[in-house]
Amino acid sequence: MASRVDGDPALWNPSQVASWMNSFEDGRYSSLVIQMKAFSGRQILDLTDPQWARIQPTQLSNSLRYTLLGMHQVVSANFPRLDVDGSTDTESTLQYHATGSPKTTPESGRGAKTKQIERIKPCEFPPMLARPNWVVILSLVLLIIGAVLAFAVFPNQLKEQGWPSSRILTVSSIPLISVVFTYVHIWLALFMTFYPLEYFGIWQFPGTNMGVCGWQGIVPFKGEKMARMAVRIMTSQLLDVREVFSRIDPKQVSKELEPILFSTIRDIVETMALKYNPSLWSVLPTSVKDEIVEKVKEEAPKHIEEMMVEIKEHIDDVFDLEDMVVSNMMKDKQLLVNMFVTCGYQELAFIRNSGAAMGFIFGVLQMILYLAAPNLSVYIVFPAFGLLVGTLTNWLALKMIFEPVNPRKILCIKLHGLFLRRQQEVAAMYGFMVAKDVLNAHNIIESILKGPASDKLFELVYANVQQSVNAGTAVADRIVSIGIGKDTLNSIKDDITDLVVQKFPDSLRHIEGYTMVALDLENTLRSKIGALSFHDFERLLHPVFEEDEWKLVLMGGALGLALGFLQTAYETH
């Protein structure tokens, strides 16, 4: 029995790398040791495409690259450990009858319990209180100086002019309160777009994210709809699933699977022979045993290539992109929130800060009205202005993110949606996060293996493996002639097919490294999103927000109205 491949290649030092290359698959990569002798495992995994291109021969270096990437993926993702001989530490989740119909174990059903998912950590959200810039510091200094002059240096002179301390406090507090209120309620509107992830409150109105006294963030509430909309945009404008999967080279897949496949073939053949006729197998010459194994080995790569070609041709039947994206995004709503907050952090912080400026402008206008029309009832001025400021500033803040869609110039000022003007930068971040957390090789392979179309996949795989076994065991006619019988031989073939198909999921997971590089989804998404028109880019992210923006605008108005009544109560008492 071959020894187990241990450890994460990323942790190997140069001598461990060389030792593994000399021993793996009887020294398959030993000819590359001289070229790689100075590299640690981590350095090898981090080599760029041009650096790999300089390592010759190319075919062997590519095989080394994807083998190590696959091993690293398996260890880091906690897949079932695989011995070099092909045996796993955990039972296969899929078992097959000799009839060819798939039998699913309890763990593999779509509605079955899943393993505890590690929660995604929330990314940084622009805090309510940030480090003040020079404008804020200067404003505070001037405010303090004004307060000292009004209340300590010139109180008597101001009182003689009809400006007692109480009146000064009332008038000056109007813009100050407006600044603080607008800053806070705009930040609150932004925060409530994304949080809380689940409804928090007394009683939730069915089908909404609101309740008697509670709220759920718009993005997590609309997460599934948003994910489905994103998939439709992806498939219509960004990704052609067939074109993406056409990048996978069946020959390279065959090479990547060779170490695992070849190491299991002898064990499978021996298992079957010992099961059906142990006495015959024990007396067969080693040369005959080797011929049987070598014949299967010889035929296997060709049939793997043929099977991968067929999977690619039927990718629409065996892979449901929408189900994969939605299910992975909804595993943890924090993922979707992180994507939007990370991409839009600068815009969120800018809008939060602009709340203070908008609050100051509206506060000054309110103060002027208060002074110009002293006979106008405070029961009208403060509540009306509070309602206006709360509603208008929230509306402006939300509009500034995505509008105007196309740049407009008014006098010397260029107006453009804050999110849209950073399209290339956002495209890079969005492409990276989607490729890393959603459309990664692991999720794609797991979706193909366990998604709603997985039955079709295994039917296809079973048919191909059965054909491969039939072709590869033609040499067994000499065994039949000794007396094993055709019926027994057919049973052996069926059992071999069952065993190979059982190992198919774990085998396929070992090409994650190659799949990740071959699909190149990060660069594809970045270039495609970056090339969208401003209108299409806005449609990629904005539609779901639009449906619920009115709630945040209404909330701002309600808070402004409440603050207006508080100001009225202070003024009258």
Which properties best describe this structure?
573 residues; mainly alpha; 3 domains; single chain
What does this structure look like?
- Keywords: Membrane, Transmembrane, Transmembrane helix.
- The chain crosses the membrane at residues 134-154, 174-195, 355-373, 379-398.
- Residues 90-107 have a biased composition (Polar residues).
- It is built from 28 helices and 7 strands.
- It has 573 residues and is mainly alpha-helical.
- It folds into 3 domains: 9-76, DNA polymerase, domain 1 (Orthogonal Bundle), CATH 1.10.150; 94-116 and 237-331 and 429-530, no CATH class; 134-221 and 345-418 and 542-572, no CATH class.
- The chain has a 3-stranded antiparallel β-sheet with strand order 3-5-4, with no helix packed on it. Strands 1-2 form a two-stranded antiparallel sheet. It has a two-stranded antiparallel sheet with strand order 6-7.
- α12 packs across α14 (286-313), α12 crosses α24 and α17 (333-343) packs antiparallel against α20 (423-437).
- The longest helix has 30 residues, at 165-194.
The 3D shape can be described as elongated
Arrangement of strands in the largest sheet: 3-5-4
Radius of gyration using CA atoms only:
34 Å
Largest sheet: 3 strands, antiparallel
Query: What is the count of distinct domains?
Result: 3
Compute the number of helices. Answer: 28
Q: Care to count the β-strands?
A: 7
> Which consecutive residue ranges, at least 5 long each, have pLDDT under 50?
1-5, 77-116
Query: Which class of secondary structure composition applies to the elements?
Result: mainly alpha
> How much helical structure, as a percent, in the residues?
55-70%
The percentage of residues in β strands lies in under 5%
What is the overall pLDDT average? 76
Alpha carbon gap, first and last residue: 90 Å
